[in-house]
Amino acid sequence: MYVSRHCFGTAEATRLAGEVSQKLPRLQVKVIMLDEMPMINTMSVPPTPSYFLDDRLLFLGNPRIEELLSKISSARQGKGKQP
Predict the structure, then answer these.
(1) Would you say residue 57 lies in a domain?
(2) Between the chain's N and C termini, which has fewer beta carbons within 10 Å?
(3) For the whole model, what pTM was predicted?
């Protein structure tokens, strides 16, 4: 998950990350603060918040928790992994 300080959705994205971590403890959840990345190429920066799973974009903007968990589960089942 990519977020930035200036984004209005950062607090909600961080909350969702915590909820996903709690509900799917086997899933490694990373919240990447773009503002803290040194020497970042702004052309390669996704809009924030952005949700990725295995380098695949799931959502731009904050989804509802049900949508997020469903999309994660579907994507992981397609790869033969437990949600």
Answers:
(1) yes
(2) C
(3) 0.82
